[in-house]
Amino acid sequence: MAYSATLIDHFRNPRNAGIMRDPDGVGEGEYKECMDLARFYLRVSDGRVVEARFQTYGCGPTIAASSAATELAAGQGLEELAALHEASVEAAVGGLPEERRHAAEVVALAMRAAARDALMRLGTTRRPGMA
Amino acid sequence: MHPRVYLDHNASTPVHPEVVQAMLPYFSERFGNPSSVHGFGREAREGIETAREHIAHFLRVGKEEIVFTSGGTESDNMAIKGVAMARRQGHLITSQIEHHAVLRTCQNLETLGFDVTYVAIDGFGAVDPDEIRRAIRPDTILISIMHANSEVGTIEPIREIGRIARERGIPFHVDAVQTFGKVAIDVDGFGIDLLSFSSHKIYGPKGVAGLFIRRGTKMVSVQHGGEHERRRRAGTENVPGIVGLGKAVEVRARDMEAEAPRVTALRDRLWQGVSARVPDVRLNGHPTERLPGTCNLCFKNVESESIVLGLDLKGIGVSAGSACTSGNVEPSYVLVAMGVPLDWAMGSVRCSLGRGTTAEDIDYVVESVAPLVGKLRDLSPAKA
């Protein structure tokens, strides 16, 4: 199976791997058919992601896509990230073989969940009368 | 630049230089059709018959009991369907951990009205001969058990099973693709009636294999056409391939005895090295009754394909136990049948060593595996 140089680079040198203390948003995505699990942590400032970190169990493409997605998320608005499409994740790792498309799916699912979680927490802290 | 280390000999092997040399004249010089009566044909025929003699001598069987095929899969199909179709109905016994060439052939026979018992195996991947004895019915027409499992390397108690088959007068097929040329096979002593063997697992070319058929075994052809192979397998013979297989067997007969202890020691060095450096790793298969070169490892809570990719980037070729196809991961059916828990089975990696493997190769693999598994576990969320 041929993987892109970008994918291999992310697998070899994962960016932003590991847990984040006191994140502003956390989200998971699971792909039950292959037991892949991705989790993202987001640090947010002014409605934009300033840092994203990941923890992932899965095959090489899922680990690489998680790493690429943390770079993709940095600087993005939460609303935008909550609508992240798997095609964007796939593009960020330089494409995926047909039988590994699930990597982009599980990663996009987890990132959207993290963005929604951050939006929810933000909404909670900005309740009228609290600001 | 990394060294390149090939630890996937159960999948395929490099063709031995002596085998290449033996094959070369049969592409452009002795290219005739072995069925032709002229000199060109006779030269090709001579190549085939010399190969047949080497193999018959190696197995200590009659020359006319060897049939050449296109691969282990065809040999298994020929043996099982050939025996079943000659009887038109009946019951077959096999195990849950056979190669798909046996399992799916048996499943196909079930759709045609045959009954099949798939006997369970123990935690080491071994068939209990008593299970075979218990599964026998008055209408049992074939017992098919592999000599050694390709994934975990466990060597099955073929002698005991053969004795049971012989007592009951039931034909006994052995898929010996993983043992032929690696461990001793006593065809008569083991009571074997049909034996599948392959070329590319023993440093011969791909696309050629064989089946030993004991004289008097009642079976029909499953491939129809010309009169080749004593009307048992129609189709012009793969002459260079057969010549290569014959040479590969000749070389194995010379080298295998000395090679087995060397490869076994390297296999054990690999397990000792990995288990000393990596926590939560287990060795699958029988501790001693195992193929000399097979070391199947499970790393808990790591996905096997990520290990295979990580090692590939270090120039190391091993195979993943769990296969991910179209987004569905199937843990190895062999490990599942052995009762290996899922969180272990998902992280299985098979290393299979061969004649070219060195101690330096093994040490490089051990040095590469430990940090890789550690890194993959660090990346993993707590749940995994």
What would a concise description of this structure say?
With 131 residues, chain A is α+β, with helices and mostly antiparallel strands. Helices cover 44% and strands 21% of the residues of chain A.
Descriptive overview:
The complex is a heterodimer of chains A (131) and B (384). Chain A has 131 residues and is of the alpha+beta class. Helices cover 44% and strands 21% of the residues of chain A. Chain A contains 5 helices and 3 strands. Chain A is globular and about 45 Å long. Chain B is α/β, with parallel strands linked by helices and 384 residues long. Helix content of chain B is 42%, strand content 16%. Chain B is built from 13 helices and 15 strands. Chain B has helices at 17-23, 25-28, 39-59, 72-87, 100-111, 129-135, 158-168, 228-231, 239-277, 304-312, 333-337, 342-345, 359-379, and strands spanning 5-6, 66-69, 91-95, 115-119, 140-146, 172-175, 194-198, 209-213, 281-284, 294-299, 316-317, 319-320, 323-325, 328-330, 348-352. In chain B, helix 5 links the parallel strand 3 (91-95) and strand 4 (115-119). In chain B, helix 10 (304-312) crosses helix 13 (359-379). Chain B is globular. Classes of the chains: A alpha+beta (131), B alpha/beta (384). Chain A binds chain B through residues 3, 8, 11-12, 14, 17-18, 28, 31, 33-39, 54-60, 63, 98-102, 105, and chain B through 301-303, 305-306, 309-310, 313, 324-329, 346, 376, 378-384.
